[in-house]
Amino acid sequence: MAKIVGIGACVMDTLYNIPSYPCEDRKMRALGSKLAGGGPVATGLVAAAKLGESAAYIGNLSDDSGGAFLIKDFEKYGVDTSNVTVVEGKRSFTSVLWLSADTGTRTCVFDKGDLPPLALNGEQRTAIANAELLMVDGNDMDAAVEAARIARENNIPVLYDCGGLYEGVERLLALTDIMIPSEEFALGHTGCADAFAAAKRLWEQYSPRIIVITQGEKGGIIYDGKDTTAYPVYPVKVTDSNGSGDVFHGAFAAAVVKGFDYLRCARFASAVSALKCTGIGARESTPDFETTLNFIKERGYEL
Asked: Any residues with CB less than 8 A from the CB of 144 and at least 6 apart, and which?
């Protein structure tokens, strides 16, 4: 059984490297292009696997070319797909991304496809009950909520990658132990004016074990109900920022399973995310454990 299991979006991304964003109604030659696996939890699971922890994806995928690619991509990185249900005749979740060389930013257009919602079967429930950590991202909400309840019943921590303000998100937040929202999510959900106030509001509403608010280039903060502590961002030359948040969450999950305290988890995940940004493709560019430790040490930081 995998230590880390996840339920959430799994996306086939088409990445285009471009010199700069084109003007409307123009043509532009790309510097290069490639297919890559994406999705918050799906990419987080790959990151955890590359960092040395066993990981498994639970979800529905299509029998089209996108679904076949996504299964092979999981297998390439050692993520268990035995709890994937292949659904015939449906359209995969896909996206197209422009990666701008002059700004280091990305623009995404996505099609969620038409796969049916995940309904957990007995084997999938067993995989959750025997894991050490459950990752969710708000996609497949009903299944994620059921999985979180199973995890809670078995004293398994639930890590929620809070990126989208989905309908019914409160149900999942109430079952979350490790809450990792983007600053945008935290401010949008609470109505607070800053991340510190938002962290306290989220704690008062949902009482997780820890709240980690990610703030992009500023790093982020963690809040344990008493103290607020900042964690650093590691400066690098950004080649591709797409998926850096997904990788952060997967690295945080791996660090939890390794037994790190939450501040060390945040510092470690920040370094993994930074290294990912130096290459093209979130999964392909995620470093291994030793590379990350060396990166942190070489820059004079302590984990």
From this structure: 7, 8, 136, 137, 138, 172
